[in-house]
Amino acid sequence: MSPLTGLDGRTAVITGAASGIGRATARLFADAGAVVVVADLDAEGAEQTVAEIEKEGGTALAVVGDLSDSTVIARLVAVTDGRFGGTDILVNNAGVTDSKTPPARVGDEEWERVVRISLTAPFLLTRAMLPHMLRQQRGVVINIASEAGLRGGVGGIAYTAAKHGAVGMTIGVAEAGQIASVALFLASDAADNVNGAVIPVDGGRAAL
């Protein structure tokens, strides 16, 4: 049983959900009552995530494709809208690291690939799904960044720049929060790894 519930009737699109953090997030959200759309380039892994969710009594659907391709994003939005009426929760988790090459030797292809997948794709997905959220006056966008998005990291310049960009994008589209909801989260087992953190719950004013 999930330590938090309350996602009944919500549709969550989770990218990079064929494995790792994405799969764990997809299973947890489904356990909390959400319908989950598993978006990933790895078809076998995506279908495995769906199978695990369905085995536990949840509802899930795999959409396979390269999320750095705008046509794949359009298909993902169309499928989600057609099957479930739109996206209530978007978790931008998919990303790639780089070769950790020194900045002077980073090639254009590597830079563009990492930034396209780790930053541009989350922006395109967010832009595509925000209209539905704004119409219903409810929605959540969660961007999974990295410690490299807060400081320098061993991931290399492309990865670090992309993750800093993801943090900035998150601030740029911040929505209002409710203090009681955050307090509930912090009091729950889901917040076991949150310790000594300062969390602004100010309706987005800290983002201005």
TrEMBL record:
Enzyme Commission number(s): 1.1.1.-
Alphabetized CDD domains for the sequence: SDR_c (cd05233)
UniProt key word ATP-binding: no
Enzyme class: oxidoreductase
SUPFAM superfamilies, A to Z: NAD(P)-binding Rossmann-fold domains
Keyword Oxidoreductase attributed: yes
Keywords in alphabetical order: Oxidoreductase
Top-level taxon of origin: Bacteria
GO molecular function terms noted in the UniProt entry: oxidoreductase activity
Entry similarity comment: Belongs to the short-chain dehydrogenases/reductases (SDR) family.
PANTHER family: DEHYDROGENASES, SHORT CHAIN, ESTRADIOL 17-BETA-DEHYDROGENASE 8-RELATED
Protein name per UniProt: SDR family NAD(P)-dependent oxidoreductase
